[in-house]
Amino acid sequence: MEHVPFDDAETYEPEDGWGRAALAGSDRFTFEWFEKPAGHSSPMHDHENEQVCLCLEGELVVHTEDDTAVLERYDSVHLDAWESHRVENRTDERAVGLDVFAPGRGFDFWTDREE
Length: 115
Known about the structure:
Elements: E1 11-15, E2 18-22, E3 30-36, E4 50-57, E5 60-64, E6 68-71, E7 76-79, E8 85-88, E9 95-102, H1 108-111
Antiparallel strand pairs: 1-2, 2-3, 3-9, 4-7, 4-9, 5-6, 5-8
Protein name: Cupin
Organism: Halorubrum salipaludis
InterPro entries: Cupin_2, RmlC-like_jellyroll, RmlC_Cupin_sf
């Protein structure tokens, strides 16, 4: 068993105020808690991982090239591998979510990213 207390989780901030924390996971899947500040959007991007995004607090808007989904508390969306998307908080309050990636991925996706 791997226990990861939230206060001890590895964290990083891809952009100011956009915090992420690595929760328990493996090479086959990873869980990342995140908080997105008011008005923030990730850039449109894709990756080799399937992804489930779950809204825990506030509202998140997930955009793909073909669709948009508004996630309220406990709503989720599944994204296929290589499906271009971005996640936006268009409110004036912070939003909190949980991303699940399969296969697992590390923080280097955002920290080593070239624009």
